[in-house]
Amino acid sequence: MKVVVVIPTYNERENIRVLLTELDKAFGTAKKYSISYLVVDDTSPDGTAQVVETFRKTHKDVFIISGKKEGLGKALLRGMTQAFEHMDADVVLQIDADLSHDPTVAPRLLSAIDNGATFAVGSRYIPGGAIPGNWGLIRKIYSIIGNSIVRFGLWHIDVRDWTGGYRAYTKKFYLATHREMEKYSGYVFQIAFLHKSIHHGAIVKEIPFHFTDRLYGHSKIAPAEYIFNIYKYIAVSRFQEITSWSFFKFGVVGTIGFIINTVVLELMVRAGLHPAAGSATGAELAIISNFLLNNAWTFGDRKVIGKKMIPKFLQFNITSLGALIIQTVSVWVGTVLFGKSAYFVSYIIGVGVGLVWNYIMYSRVIWKK
Ligand code: GDD
Ligand code: MN
Hints:
Elements: E1 2-9, H1 13-27, E2 34-41, H2 48-56, E3 62-66, H3 72-86, E4 91-94, H4 106-114, E5 119-123, H5 137-153, E6 167-170, H6 171-181, H7 189-199, E7 204-208, H8 223-242, H9 245-270, H10 275-298, H11 309-338, H12 343-366
Parallel strand pairs: 1-2, 1-4, 2-3, 5-7
Antiparallel strand pairs: 4-6, 5-6
Helix pairs in contact: 1-2, 3-6, 6-7, 9-10, 11-12
This protein binds guanosine-5'-diphosphate-alpha-D-mannose and manganese (II) ion.
């Protein structure tokens, strides 16, 4: 396994030499992999590049590329391009230069890859990981909430640390995403790259570490711009998912189900049966139609066939019951709060929430990739 450690730097003169030395020490015994270092410097005015050039004289495995300052995301992408396309890397390990990322954890990120993960994430939010104890309460809350917004906003709750920059990943995700990654020049790059990699089948493994404040220099993050870009990323990517082709098919299938439900109800009532019986029969027939059509068409790429269809169909009934409960509770809460006449509005809200519930359940549980 050929590993290139990518280190973005902007004014890290005081830190870079210590980091390179510490990393070398950390990998010292792990000669299992072939490791080289690539500093991606944006022509730092403090002379970071000169420090690296001096270091290179005694360390032949250290390389540096220089460019103009276009943001962290651009620098990381440039580093990946160099590593994967010109240095023959199988894996890139990216780490901040400011010693916030404990270098002794780096071999663990690589072991995770060695043991089958394809995207190892240094994590502050799993047991054993931490954000700095000396941060004020507000900053801590900010960091935790920020990460939760991404985690829940993108609805990948199994991954805890979305914003960090301590990671190792295989070439596959660079190849699959590098064209679209051009768009994310700032810190939001970290979120977008992980998210897109997951969509390309990344096997994520989180490795805990203690994030510490930098000793020298200062952070280059611009909080307002960063937060804006995070919200924008979540909104745009969720909107694209929701308006995707499969969501359209889901809508068509649901409409057919609704028509079946209504027609059966009408016919049975006209035949003199009780409306409750008509409604229940119609609903179940609609569920059957929804199941078969979604299976064959909406999620046709993940179709279940043969005997496996039976447990899936039962599961499908249970999640449909979930939507029914959401709808009923919504109508009930609406009428309790705003009186009987408000039933229609709360019914519509319930149907809407129920639809979202169904789509998430279908795409993430029943027809999980
Ligand atoms: N080449 C280059 N160009 N490097 C940059 C640039 C840039 O425009 N901006 C920042 N860097 C480098 C820094 O020199 C440092 O090595 C690393 O990227 C992280 O930058 P910091 O300025 O130290 O960022 P931070 O500590 O505030 O941000 C941390 O948290 C973010 C959000 O959780 C880092 O862990 C980030 O990676 C993380 O995204
Ligand atoms: Mn930092």
